[in-house]
Specification:
By secondary structure, this protein is an alpha/beta fold. The protein folds into two domains: 83 residues, Leucine Dehydrogenase, chain A, domain 1 (Rossmann fold), CATH 3.40.50; 135 residues, NAD(P)-binding Rossmann-like Domain (Rossmann fold), CATH 3.40.50. 39% of the residues lie in helices and 17% in strands. The strands form three sheets. It has a six-stranded parallel β-sheet with strand order 1-11-8-7-5-6. Strands 3-2-4 form a three-stranded parallel β-sheet, with helices on both faces. It has a two-stranded antiparallel sheet with strand order 9-10. Helix 7 links the parallel strand 5 and strand 6.
Length: 294
């Protein structure tokens, strides 16, 4: 069994991005990312702060815009319009979830596709489906990079994705279907309506667990030598921890690792790749502007 170290892969990619950002800045274009946060959700605030810190480390311009949860949808849309037209900004990210009085779909669609570094705009999703050049959603793109880093063969492989969210499950399934490398796989998507999850996972060469529920994948559901990509991040009570809980994935890590050839830990696996791929898309957006394609 070999651990897939997301921290190490993210660090390597960030090193490359730092060099690319420096070259762009030397030519008069410093890659710029605007992050918009509404409200005081602690997890969202922590995530936004981490993005801002990462931008500073890579030499990217970061604009952190924080608004009260009561901000109206119209005010938020006007802010996005301003950022769409700002040449210093190459990527726009509106932190989800948004307050209940705001239509998230309308907000995402207001971001112009050339600055949609989250890869959630319908135009970006459509281009991804067609295999055209676009910004790929960050977590699925990070998964692909991890598979690539370890030279894990996907062509012709049986891949089971557990979870069908628009953020992870659906896009990663589509990306691995593409006639690319990594890709060209036979992909099965399982979800809450799947009658026998174990029947599907036992066939899998690669399991991507993105269900959002601890203990979804147990050792008896995994065949010997399978590759396990655990996307889940779940809090489980733990009195031995100062904060009263610990983080685990969707996979029973200790049991499943004995049967797997490769496995991602939680934390330290897929997680570090998400922000890294956001920065990747931001730098790519600036490079497209320099090339006259932004």
């Amino acid at each position: 069994m070999e651990l897939i170290d997301g921290k190490a892969t993210a660090a390597r990619i960030r090193g490359e991005l730092r060099e690319r950002a420096a070259k762009l800045t030397a030519q008069g274009i410093q890659p710029g990312l605007a992050v918009v946060l509404l409200g005081e959700d602690p997890a969202s605030r922590s995530y936004v702060t981490a993005k801002e810190k990462a931008c500073g480390e890579l030499g990217l311009y970061s604009r952190d815009i924080r608004k009260p949860a009561e901000t109206s949808e119209e005010e938020l849309l006007c802010l996005i319009d301003e950022l769409n037209g700002d040449p210093a900004i190459h990527g726009i990210l509106v932190q989800l979830p948004l307050p209940s009085h705001i239509n998230s779909d309308r907000v995402i669609e207001r971001i112009i596709p050339t600055k949609d570094v989250d890869g959630f705009h319908p135009v970006s999703v459509g281009k991804m489906m067609l295999g055209q050049e676009t910004f790929l959603p960050c977590t699925p793109h990070g998964i692909v990079k991890l598979l690539e880093e370890k030279n894990i063969e996907t062509s012709g492989a049986e891949i089971v994705v557990v979870g069908r969210s628009n953020i992870v499950g659906k896009p990663i399934a589509n990306m691995l279907l593409q006639k690319t490398r990594p890709g060209n796989a036979t992909v099965t998507v399982c979800h809450t309506g799947t009658k026998s999850l174990k029947e599907h996972t036992l066939r899998a060469d690669i399991i991507i667990a993105a269900a959002g529920r601890a203990g979804t994948i147990t050792a008896d559901m995994v065949r010997e030598g399978a590759v396990i990509i655990d996307v889940g991040v779940n809090r489980v009570p733990d009195d031995t921890k100062k904060r009263g809980y610990r983080l685990v994935g969707d996979v029973d890590f200790e049991a499943v690792k004995e049967k797997s050839s490769f496995i991602t830990p939680v934390p330290g696996g897929v997680g570090p790749m998400t922000i890294t791929m956001l920065l990747y898309n931001t730098v790519l957006s600036a490079e497209r502007v320099l090339a006259g394609r932004g």
